[in-house]
Design goal:
It contains 5 helices and no strands. The chain is an all-alpha fold. The longest helix has 38 residues. The protein is rod-shaped, with a radius of gyration of 21 Å. It starts with a helix and ends with a helix.
């Protein structure tokens, strides 16, 4: 039985390009969902630049949280990409570690929306 486990590791997870492509996809979708969570304020009562400034001040906390989340995802993506420049071989364990990391990356838009509320 141990031989089967070793054989599985020989064949599973050796294509680093697929893991990197999955990570790029998850990061790009998470970053896109972040901006979709931003809502446009109601501009019906805006009649001057002062009113517009007041409305934009109301949106400022949401923009700040969006900015912080986007930068956080950018830092995570940069670190993930940098790690894969040094990895020459992988196995299924690295794949699962990457999948669990990406699971938490995919939660960032939810936590951002939760934080803004």
């Amino acid at each position: 039985m141990p031989q089967l486990r070793d054989d599985y590791n020989i064949f599973a997870g050796h294509n680093l390009q697929r893991t990197k492509a999955l990570a790029d996809g998850v990061f790009s979708i998470a970053m896109t969902i972040l901006v979709l969570e931003l809502s446009i304020p109601f501009f019906g009562s805006v009649h001057s630049e002062g009113d517009l400034f007041t409305v934009l001040l109301q949106v400022a906390p949401r923009l700040l949280v969006y900015f912080m989340s986007f930068i956080t995802l950018g830092i995570f993506w940069t670190g993930h990409s940098l790690q894969y420049t040094f990895i020459e071989e992988s196995d299924r364990h690295l794949n699962w570690i990457s999948i669990f990391f990406l699971m938490f990356v995919a939660l960032i838009p939810f936590t951002t929306a939760f934080l803004t509320e």
